[in-house]
């Protein structure tokens, strides 16, 4: 549910909104526990958990040893046996260390045991490039996990959604993977007070337009909105869709938009090949919206290389506002 | 060339699965035909060896024409039988191949064309999916439309421009079919029924002729409309009202069939000043009864065998429903989103086999000239619902028609429509 009229809101950052959601959950539901490396006294690698250990104690905000596989195993086991753990990874790149627990256990146990047990675990992954943290701390691996049935994978892009989707994830009986772009942690926005939830399976149109559909995910939503604002000065109205959920993908919102605009641009930070953009492009090409396409579909994604340490190269490795602007303009004006 | 679609006069061969001299068993795929609705596989009617392929890929052939011959074992293969040349369709093929084989010699090389030119012919015009669809809908040939996109690609706007140019020319149809007219009166707006689409109006349009411009609205979840099902009947009507308002017509003659009839009546009720006349064909909304089993059967059908009995219920003469037609309908229902939207519409509009909306009050209110056309052998909605109509509504009840008068007897329905519209027959 979005902030409805009459609901009191407060300005907070994306990180504060996540902390607010965790604070509400810890207060309301004694089954909720936070787990992760340095999330206690240190407050988390990106200071997201902050002072929660002081408010809820070390039994509810648990520092785990430096073993992602161990932490994930404990979180999955705790979820199977009645708790509602939120496991924070320091960097989403370290999901690779915990793949066995995420892919083979969390995603599969409900199926393997005929529905007798579910795994209501929530995992939070600080993701993406732009912080100068180089190849092993800057990846965007959401499509990896999005490929696994049994998981839900979301990428909130605003403080309001970050809070609402985390609370929705805790309500969900199955494992939910939340990818939080590190550069968004300081983004400020109005956030409704108290408990509310945001659907985990709905994309949202952030800006309406009729010239071209831009489906963006994660931080690319903000870059796409910036580009759309510049395009509007030339009289080109781009429609910007915030994908929000990688699994499941909200087909209808995207198809509806493509039927209107006839042009599709997919923008995502993860490596372009075999990524979210390929999935969305194929989905549109396979649907009745195909007959509405008036130009080839265009994908903008990350370069086919590890994220470089050099700041200029790091920028060059992922789509920037100028790239989106050029691609969207070429599409909208019939030059693609 | 089999008839796989009720309003099909010719078919285009998209692909041969078997080549000259090859053996086939009964039921083997022989060739694919392309219709407006779907690509259809045609199966071998019996065992034999294929000879004298008269219609090649991309050729358009009239229904009932021979496209090739099957010889059974031991039978001597002679010259192509006399008069076997297939009747070519009137339209140039616009298929991918875009070449017409006009000779009847089996397996003959194409006359050698300069390589460049040949490649150009085989590739066909470069056009976007939107442009192809718009051209198909406007009955324009892509090869006649200049493309302004990259590498000469024809884009949607190019076709719209061509449509505008055609409209401007306003040249009278050299061969007026049916009722010719000055096209000056209000246009017709047609709304199809549940599980149908805009193309189902083909036979009626043909019979009606060019006397008035015709607009066709599609229900959500049908044809090329949105796949978002309306929450209930009033949401359906609001959606259709927006579609109607977008046409920006000051006056129109409104025609609706079945569920589309109910929608048309509701629209006429709320836009009374713009509706010059209202024609309802086997309309829903005038009583609670409907054959829920038939709706359910059609919605659920995953095989031609389970679809056929229900399709036969739609018409008074079940022989009108050919096996190929059943397969074409099934192919047209392959879109999962379409089926899902229609299922959800049935759940709300026809819950428990009941028409969950009542427009009898609306029928009492509308004041424009109104006509109800119905077949007394309708197996889906009881024709007797028409009897609740007030006295000023004209009733035209046909003894030998079912739920689809506009398809079963397009000429008769067109005559009535012409009378409503005020055109001389």
Give descriptors for this structure.
heterodimer, A: 336 residues, alpha/beta, Rossmann fold, 2 domains, seven-stranded mixed beta sheet, five-stranded mixed beta sheet, 12 helices, globular, B: 425 residues, OB fold (Dihydrolipoamide Acetyltransferase, E2P), Dihydrolipoamide Transferase, six-stranded parallel beta sheet, four-stranded antiparallel beta sheet, 13 helices, 15% strand, BfmBAB_1 protein (chain A), oxidoreductase (chain A), Transketolase_C (chain A)
Q: Explain this structure to me?
A:
Chain A: Its EC number is 1.2.4.4. The complex is a heterodimer of chains A (336) and B (425). Chain A folds into 2 domains: 9-192, Rossmann fold (3-Layer(aba) Sandwich), CATH 3.40.50.970; 204-332, Rossmann fold. Chain A is of the alpha/beta class. Chain A has a 7-stranded mixed sheet with strand order 3-2-4-5-7-6-12, sandwiched between helices. A 5-stranded mixed sheet of chain A has the order 9-11-10-13-14, with helices on both faces. The radius of gyration of chain A is 20 Å and the shape is globular. Helices cover 35% and strands 20% of the residues of chain A. Chain A starts with 8 loop residues before the first strand and ends with a helix. In chain A, helix 7 (159-171) links the parallel strand 6 and strand 7. Chain A has helices at 14-28, 52-56, 68-80, 99-106, 109-112, 142-146, 159-171, 220-233, 251-261, 276-286, 311-316, 321-332; strands at residues 9-13, 32-36, 61-63, 84-88, 122-127, 152-154, 176-181, 188-192, 204-207, 212-216, 238-242, 245-247, 264-271, 298-302. In chain B, strands 9-8-10-11-12-13 form a 6-stranded parallel sheet, with helices on both faces. Chain B is built from 13 helices and 13 strands. In chain B, a hairpin with a 4-residue loop joins strand 3 and strand 4. Chain B is an alpha/beta fold and 425 residues long. Chain B has 3 domains: 10-71, Beta Barrel (OB fold (Dihydrolipoamide Acetyltransferase, E2P)), CATH 2.40.50.100; 126-165, E3-binding domain (Dihydrolipoamide Transferase), CATH 4.10.320.10; 188-421, 3-Layer(aba) Sandwich (Rossmann fold), CATH 3.40.50.1820. The A-B interface holds A 251-252, 255-256, 259, 262, 287-288, 290-295, 334-336 and B 128-133, 148-150, 155-157, 224, 226-228, 335, 337-338.
């Amino acid at each position: 549910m979005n902030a409805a009229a009459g609901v009191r809101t407060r300005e907070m950052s994306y990180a504060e909104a996540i902390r607010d959601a965790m604070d509400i959950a810890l207060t309301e539901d004694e089954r909720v526990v936070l787990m992760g490396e340095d999330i206690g006294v240190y407050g988390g690698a990106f200071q997201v958990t902050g002072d929660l250990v002081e408010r809820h104690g070390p039994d509810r905000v648990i520092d785990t040893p430096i073993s992602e596989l161990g932490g994930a195993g404990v979180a999955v086991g705790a979820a199977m046996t009645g708790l509602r753990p939120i496991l924070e990874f320091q960097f989403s790149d370290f999901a690779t260390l915990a793949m066995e627990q995420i892919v083979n256990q969390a995603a599969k146990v409900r199926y393997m045991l005929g529905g007798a047990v579910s795994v209501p675990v929530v995992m939070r992954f600080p993701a993406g490039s732009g912080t100068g943290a180089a190849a092993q701390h800057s990846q965007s691996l959401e499509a990896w996990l999005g490929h696994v049935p049994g998981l839900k994978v979301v990428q909130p892009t605003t403080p309001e959604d970050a809070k609402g989707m985390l609370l929705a994830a805790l309500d969900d009986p199955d494992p939910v993977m939340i990818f939080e772009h590190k550069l968004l942690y300081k983004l400020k926005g109005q956030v409704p007070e108290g408990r509310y939830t945001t659907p985990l399976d709905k994309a949202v149109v952030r800006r309406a337009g009729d010239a071209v559909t831009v489906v963006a995910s994660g931080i690319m939503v903000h870059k796409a909105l910036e580009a759309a604002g510049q395009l509007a000065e030339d009289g080109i109205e781009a429609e910007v869709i915030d994908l929000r959920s990688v699994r499941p993908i909200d087909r209808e919102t995207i198809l509806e938009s493509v039927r209107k605009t006839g042009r599709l641009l997919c923008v995502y930070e993860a490596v372009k090949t075999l990524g979210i953009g390929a999935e969305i492009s194929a989905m549109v090409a396979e649907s009745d919206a195909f007959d509405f396409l008036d130009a080839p579909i265009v994908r903008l994604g990350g370069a086919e290389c590890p994220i470089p340490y050099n700041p200029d190269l790091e920028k060059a490795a992922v789509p920037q506002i100028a790239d989106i602007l050029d691609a969207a303009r070429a599409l909208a004006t019939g030059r693609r | 060339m089999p008839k796989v679609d009720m309003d099909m006069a010719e078919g285009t061969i998209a692909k041969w699965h078997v080549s000259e001299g090859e053996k086939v068993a009964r039921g083997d795929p022989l060739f694919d035909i392309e219709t407006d609705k779907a690509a259809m596989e045609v199966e071998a009617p019996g065992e034999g060896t294929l000879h004298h392929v008269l219609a090649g890929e991309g050729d358009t052939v009239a229904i009932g024409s021979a496209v090739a011959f099957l010889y059974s074992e031991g039978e001597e293969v002679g010259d192509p039988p006399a008069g076997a040349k297939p009747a070519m369709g009137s339209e140039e093929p616009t298929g991918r191949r875009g070449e017409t084989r006009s000779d009847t010699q089996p397996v003959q090389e194409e006359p050698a064309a300069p390589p460049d030119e040949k490649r150009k012919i085989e590739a066909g015009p470069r056009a976007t999916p939107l442009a192809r669809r718009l051209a198909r809908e406007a009955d324009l040939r892509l090869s006649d439309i200049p493309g302004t996109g990259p590498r000469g690609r024809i884009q949607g706007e190019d076709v719209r421009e061509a449509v505008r140019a055609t409209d401007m020319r306003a040249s009278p149809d050299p061969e007026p079919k049916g009722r010719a007219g000055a096209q000056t009166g209000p246009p017709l707006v047609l709304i199809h029924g549940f599980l149908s689409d805009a193309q189902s109006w083909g036979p009626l349009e043909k019979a009606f002729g060019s006397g008035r411009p015709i607009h066709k609205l599609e229900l959500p979840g049908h044809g090329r409309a949105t796949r978002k099902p309306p929450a209930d009947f009033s949401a359906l009507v609001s959606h259709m009202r927006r579609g109607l308002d977008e046409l920006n017509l000051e006056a129109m003659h409104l025609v609706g069939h079945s569920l589309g009839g109910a929608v048309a009546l509701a629209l006429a009720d709320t836009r009374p000043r713009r509706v010059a006349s209202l024609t309802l064909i086997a309309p829903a909304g005038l009583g609670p009864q409907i054959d829920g089993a038939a709706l359910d059967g059609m919605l659920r059908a995953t095989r031609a065998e389970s679809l056929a009995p229900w399709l036969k219920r739609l018409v008074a003469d079940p022989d009108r429903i050919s096996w190929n037609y059943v397969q074409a309908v099934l192919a047209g229902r392959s879109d999962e989103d379409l089926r899902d939207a229609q299922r959800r519409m049935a759940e709300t509009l026809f819950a428990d086999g009941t028409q969950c909306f009542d427009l009898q009050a609306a029928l009492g209110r509308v004041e424009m000239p109104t006509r109800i056309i119905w077949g007394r052998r309708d197996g889906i909605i009881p024709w007797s619902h028409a009897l609740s109509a007030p006295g000023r509504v004209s009733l035209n009840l046909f003894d030998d028609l079912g739920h689809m008068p506009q398809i079963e007897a397009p000429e008769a329905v067109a005559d009535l429509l012409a009378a409503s519209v005020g055109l001389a027959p």
